[in-house]
Amino acid sequence: xxxxxxxxxxxxxxxxxxxxxxxxxxxxxxxxxxxxxxxxxxxxxxxxxxxxxxxxxxxxxxxxxxxxxxxxxxxxxxxxxxxxxxxxxxxxxxxxxxxxxxxxxxxxxxxxxxxxxxxxxxxxxxxxxxxxxxxxxxxxxxxxxxxxxxxxxxxxxxxxxxxxxxxxx
Length: 169
Known about the structure:
The chain is α/β, with parallel strands linked by helices. It contains 5 helices and 6 strands, in the order E-H-E-H-E-H-E-H-E-E-H. The protein has one domain (about 1-10, about 20-165): Phosphoglycerate mutase-like (Rossmann fold, 3-Layer(aba) Sandwich). Strands 3-2-4-1-5-6 form a 6-stranded mixed β-sheet, with helices on both faces. Helix 2 (about 55-70) links the parallel strand 2 (about 50-55) and strand 3. The chain is globular. The protein starts with a strand and ends in a 6-residue tail after the last helix.
């Protein structure tokens, strides 16, 4: 059994004239990342490997989750090949995960994440929003053999805010 947790980077800022890869998080993005990170601990496996895109907004999101969940930053593997918006490229990278790891947490980008979830999961998701958390499981012992799996948990900022208006920000 393999578990894959996909986390879309938090909302980024367009305020500064930077190249796409260097865009930082917006204030709302920072808030939403903290909010979602504070609600996911019960959905994390006991052990896991963490990968993140090298884009600034993905790295910063990974740092926020690491801080909240007490994951050593040194344990995050930053990978240029995760700076992709294509789900087939994303799947190709995921399938390279070493089989000694049954659980992978990945910080990345849309449209790759939403399309991956809809291709490999069993629930149709219109859009995985910024700071969105998706946990999926696959009945295989080999990452290379990933096929259709189960979309087990969806945690999105707007849903958390809907139930507690004090969390809007």
